[in-house]
Amino acid sequence: MTSRKFRTYDRPSFRNTTHRFRDTEIVGDVVQDLGALGPITASTDRFVATVTSLTDTQVAGGTLVPPWSRGHVITHVARATDSLCRLLTWARTGTETPQYASMDARAAEIEAGARRPVAALVADVRDTAARFEEAIRTLPPAAWRAEVRMRTGELRTPTTLVPTRLRELEIHHADLDAGYRFCDIPADAARWIIDDIVEALTRRRGTPPLRLEAHDTGLVHTLGTGGPTVGGLQADLLAWLSGRSPGTGLTASTGEVPAAPFWI
Fold it and tell me: What is the pLDDT of residues 8-43, one digit of tens each?
């Protein structure tokens, strides 16, 4: 079977994000979208640089997601990467391979690795990143059509699964509270993450009506009808939507910024 590669000035793997090149390979009639790998690699490099700058004492410090320490967050990023590799194995083989054996097993893995020295944490993040990229680049054409189930119950194909790695890296990088903030997340990545969160909220019963407006990027989302409009900088919207901020820097048409709807 022959393949051909081309570059398209169009939307990348981040849905609803414009003006980025994407790398696409067509094998037969199957589109293999590798466009997210570039931003993921850059995000990994930034995350590793921050972790490398920490001391072993600082790794035990607090984060934006207490009671987790920085060591917990870094270990979670590595174990979450392994979990995505398991889902890609499911797509590759057709044999159901759960993202995690159980939520208890997930918590135990994170706890077991949280107190390691910086060198071990960095090596873990780098090794799992390499395995993830290899799993993507060697995914056979038919696997790109396969649906797998994330731990939240949502079904995704590899095309929409792969960028969740970017979400993990960027949000958890800010969680480290080590100098990288939500305003440092590249605008395209932040927009894709917001799009992805909103998509999840749309599927969830009981999500309150809400309109989101990013005044700096023009991003707008409407959930239901009749809800308040929450607006501000895109980075501040992402911090709020992801549960990391009470709404600092945002305004609401009803006065006080409401609590963000439950996401994950």
Answer: 223 334 444 433 334 445 444 445 668 889 999 999
Q: Kindly provide the b/e burial profile for residues 158-170, where b requires at least 16 CB atoms within 10 angstroms of the residue's own CB.
A: bbbbbbbbbbbbb
Q: What is the pLDDT of residues 185-214, one digit of tens each?
A: 999 999 999 999 999 899 888 899 999 999
Structurally, how many domains does the chain consist of?
A: 2
**CB-CB contact of 14 with 191 (8 Å):** yes
Asked if residue 138 and residue 89 are part of one domain, the reply reads yes
Q: How many CA atoms lie within 13 A of 258 on its CB side?
A: 15
Verify that 165 and 238 share a domain, yes or no. no
Find the domain containing 58 and state its range: 3-180
The CA distance from 84 to 168, in Å, is 11
Judgement on whether residues 169 and 198 belong to the same structural domain of the protein: no
Task: Looking at the structure, tell me whether residues 100 and 144 fall in a common domain.
Answer: yes
Within a domain: 169: yes
Kindly state whether residues 19 and 118 are assigned to the same domain: yes
Q: What is the pTM of this model?
A: 0.88
Answer yes or no: are the C-beta atoms of 57 and 47 closer than 8 Å: no
